[in-house]
Structure formats: structure tokens, C-alpha cells
TrEMBL record:
Its EC number is 3.5.1.88. Binds 1 Fe(2+) ion. Its cofactor is Fe(2+). It is an enzyme of class 3 (hydrolase). Signal peptide: none annotated. The gene is def. HAMAP family: Pep_deformylase. This is Peptide deformylase.
Length: 177
């Protein structure tokens, strides 16, 4: 089922998500809905906060919207960054801040420990785009969005621009109803 994406500054995007106690069918149904929603909306990652669920669940598919969509689905339940190295600067966007793209500084490499779809513990290492996606999505679980990673001035400018984009987005959404 495609869920509604929560749009910034919705409170749920500023709150900390709670750990999953048991990876059961309910959690897997949430993950399935998240993939369906992400593919419909056209993103490469989604955190449960973004559909209004304060649970520590993240999905990533760098092939989203391309011909290899669905081939490398990454499900991270209770993810924790256990190592990070280096630095990279690259443009980010977010389904919860529609239309806004800003350059964000991130670690170049991260290692993340998490549970998978079957509840088994695993580790994933990522560089460049994958490292960026992992950091962006895990930030969501801690109530942090990408503009919070900008300098205070850049963040203020981004918010001013976003206000206009948000009005446009809301108009578009209203006309689709
Ligand atoms: Zn996001």
C-alpha cells in the first residue's frame, strides 16, 4: 500500500524513532509499504518517519526508477553507524522536502550494523552515494533532515527557498485530488 509522505516541517520528521523489538510480519508489511511508496514517489531511500511511523526502519535502493530497480533492495532495521571515514560534498534531495536540492557535507565511507528483513544481524559498508544515502536516512530516524546539516546561513536560505517550493507542491497536490 502506498502511504502518504509527510512533508517538512511535519513534527514527525523532527522526532526520534523507536527501536523495533521484533522483526515480525507487521514490520515486514511496513517495509513492503515503504518500498511501494518510495518507488511511486521516485526516491532512492526512505525512513519510516517519512510516512509518519516512528520506528527505526530505513530502506534504500540506488536503482530506484532505473531498469535495475528492485535488484538491490537494502532494508535496515535498528541501523547503527559503527564506522565512518573521510569527507564528501554532494547534492541531496528528500521526498519530505519536495523540490529542494542542496550540497551537503558527509562522511565518504560508513559501516552500518542493522537487522535485515528476516531479523538477522548484518553489516553493510558504503562509499560515495551509498554512504550518503545511509547517513541521510539514519539521520531521519534521529529527527534530523538534510538541511539541518547545512551551516546556519545556508540552512536559512534553504528554508526560504523551500517555503516557495512547498506552496507550489501543495497546489500541485490539491489539483491532483
Ligand atoms: Zn530524506
Amino acid at each position: 500500500m502506498v502511504r502518504e509522505i509527510k512533508i517538512y516541517p511535519d513534527e514527525v520528521l523532527k522526532q526520534k524513532a523507536q527501536p523495533i523489538e521484533e522483526v515480525n510480519d507487521e514490520v515486514r508489511a511496513l517495509v513492503d509499504d515503504m518500498f511501494e511508496t518510495m518507488y511511486k514517489k521516485g526516491g532512492v531511500g526512505l525512513a519510516a518517519n517519512q510516512i509518519g511511523v516512528l520506528k527505526r526502519v530505513v530502506i534504500i535502493d540506488l536503482g530506484s526508477g532505473k531498469e535495475n530497480q528492485g535488484k538491490d533492495k537494502i532494508v535496515l532495521i535498528n541501523p547503527e553507524i559503527v564506522a565512518m571515514e573521510g569527507e564528501q560534498v554532494g547534492e541531496e534531495g528528500c521526498l519530505s522536502l519536495p523540490g529542494l536540492y542542496k550540497k551537503v557535507k558527509r562522511a565518504k565511507y560508513v559501516k552500518v550494523k542493522a537487522l535485515n528483513y528476516d531479523g538477522e544481524e548484518f553489516e553493510i559498508e558504503g562509499e560515495d552515494l551509498l554512504a550518503r544515502a545511509l547517513q541521510h536516512e539514519i539521520d531521519h530516524l534521529n529527527g534530523v533532515v538534510f538541511i539541518d546539516r547545512l551551516s546556519p546561513l545556508q540552512r536559512r536560505l534553504a528554508l526560504e527557498k523551500y517555503k516557495k517550493l512547498k506552496r507550489k507542491y501543495e497546489k500541485k497536490m490539491a489539483s491532483q485530488r
